[in-house]
Amino acid sequence: MSTVFCRKFQENLDSLDRPPFPGETGQYIYENFSEKAWDEWLAHQKRLINEKHLELFEPDTRQYLQEQMLLFLNNKHHDLATGYVPKNKP
To answer: In the CATH hierarchy, which top-level class contains the domain 3-73?
Structure first.
């Protein structure tokens, strides 16, 4: 597996195997973020979808999630799932 300098974690980490989706944004993610960052985004996205009862077939929802994805990956202020309480790490 190759590595990439991950903009989220500011270190070299394992890269994604391929862009997560087609197009310019997918290529940007592939070139700038690690598999670890992408996996964390997918978990966060799932919490947002569940807690906010988002309907993925709605164009506004897809636009919202894309905006939140870029904010999350770039360590910018992003929406949180307010009911989510992370497990305490030992």
So the answer is: mainly alpha
